[in-house]
Please model this.
Amino acid sequence: MILALSGGVGGAKLALGLARVMPPEELAVIVNTADDFEHLGLSISPDIDTVTYTLAGLANRELGWGRHDETWSFMETMEALGGETWFRLGDRDIALHVERTRRLNNGETLSAVTADLCRRLGIKSRVVPMSDDPVRTRLRTEEGWLDFQEYFVRRRCEPVVLELLFQGAGAARAHPEFLAALADPSLQAIVICPSNPFISVEPILAIPGVRQALIDSPAPIIAVSPIIAGQAVKGPTAKMMTELGMDPSAGTVAHRYHDLLDGYVIDHADMSEVVSIDARVTLAQTLMRTMEDREALARTVLDAAAVLRRRKATR
Ligand code: FO1
Model:
């Protein structure tokens, strides 16, 4: 089995690559839920939806979120009625939010609803929320504290970020399937996808016991850099790093994961970073434009993990 930690668009791309180059039922994706929020009376889980739509082949690849087969009558009518339209909800997408909200209000857990919706969408891999307890990213900016989607969508990541807070992380319980996978001797690799380390990966690591369970796991941990030549492929990663006083580089991300990494995959453009990284580095093309790119990077990650597993076993 392969475990992938994912959030956002980059994570979903690699998760799809992995699901296509291995038996998809042997892949479990642990998804960040700290981007979740309540909006228009709906419980919205963007990173779960990005992975779900991507694995189901329904994702809008231009936007990086939502569905490709979308219409916008609901949003147009909300506009006409003076409702909130800064967070765009397509007509098909909104059915998912309405149905998930109904089931959560009926007392089902986020993971149970997610598993059932993925089954209905024909997804063979497991998509598991990092926790069924609420965790919410909040950002202290020069304009005060902002909820995540307020910062990310409404303000288009413009405010300068001074501090991040994962509200509720300290009281959240890692999902049992997540912890069971980490302890499973048949686990072949733990892949930290090329997601934003601050807003997609660190909320997962902030849950009590997760970091230690990762370190104790028999499986090697291999991350893919979300930064190529000092730039984020998508989203505010590099901007956040600079604002938080860090050098926006592949090496800095590796240092953020410090004691966790056995392996690290960086782009050929970042070859000079190799010397500063305390893990087994693999150079690859990490920009995923095509399906072939996604599959090639996934194969590279799995091959590197196989080498690391042999080394870990002999230690
Ligand atoms: N991102 C935007 O930049 N603008 C939007 O209007 C927007 C709507 C949206 C609706 C559903 C959904 O699942 C995601 C949506 N996103 C939108 C993306 C979302 O904010 C991000 O994918 C994550 O929160 C960050 O990874």
Notes: The chain has a mean pLDDT of 96. The pocket of FO1 is lined by residues 7-8, 35, 46-47, 49-50, 65-66, 87-89, 93, 149, 152-153 (CB under 6 Å).
